[in-house]
Amino acid sequence: MTVTRCRTGLTIFAMMLSLSIAGCAATMVDTQVSDPWEGFNRSMYRFNFYFDKYLFLPVVSGYEFITPTFFQERISSFYNNLGEVRNLTNSLFQLKGKEFVATLGRFVTNSTLGLGGLFDPASRFGLERHDEDFGKTLGYWGAGSGPYLVLPIFGPSSLRDAGGLAVDTGISYGIYTAIDPFGNTGDGFAIDAGVVTLEAIDARHQQSFRYYESGYPFEYYIVRFFYHNKRELESGKPPPAE
User: Fold this and answer.
1) CA 164: distance to chain centroid?
2) Mean predicted confidence (pLDDT) in 133-140
């Protein structure tokens, strides 16, 4: 559950349910992914569950309760449009010319005709969204995923993807600082904190995954398996055959 990542196709939770009927699934997934820090990762997985249950999800539920659906959609569209900057830079890093042009077209279209990203006319014009991040960029250029890693709050990751998240965050922060849209308001820090907080709430609002709701006794292994293979496929590296 990143602030602005992992929103393609089925959620990990849905994929977990698709395997929950297979009694031998745990044996299959247990040997697929390097996990030398399993003790730490399991502890962090439990921490994320409690953080979600007692803090994050109640806040998200409150946000959903007091915010009309129309405004929820506008807020999601706004932050998704800001996420195009990450998609744009990583398309460039991967030398994907067509994808770069399409993403630039989406960003310009939604930032203008879409009233600052509040609406998404680009999709109606056939400009497809391409979700990219620096972890995928590293994988695209041949970097291995490294050991599996569960990050606090952010959730399933890997050594490569954690580094990619740091780079993407640094680039976004640098661009935002250079623009400094609220620098002359006198309350720039408070507004910036509000923008970041709302972004985190919206990101969790858009992600349907819930810890330990699968009812599957080997949920940790299933999540680890699907996260690893999903990321390898997204970076253009099919997982090795059995």
Assistant:
1) 12
2) 96
Mean pLDDT of the chain: 87
**Which pTM does this prediction carry?**
0.84
What mean pLDDT is predicted for residues 127-139?
Answer: 96
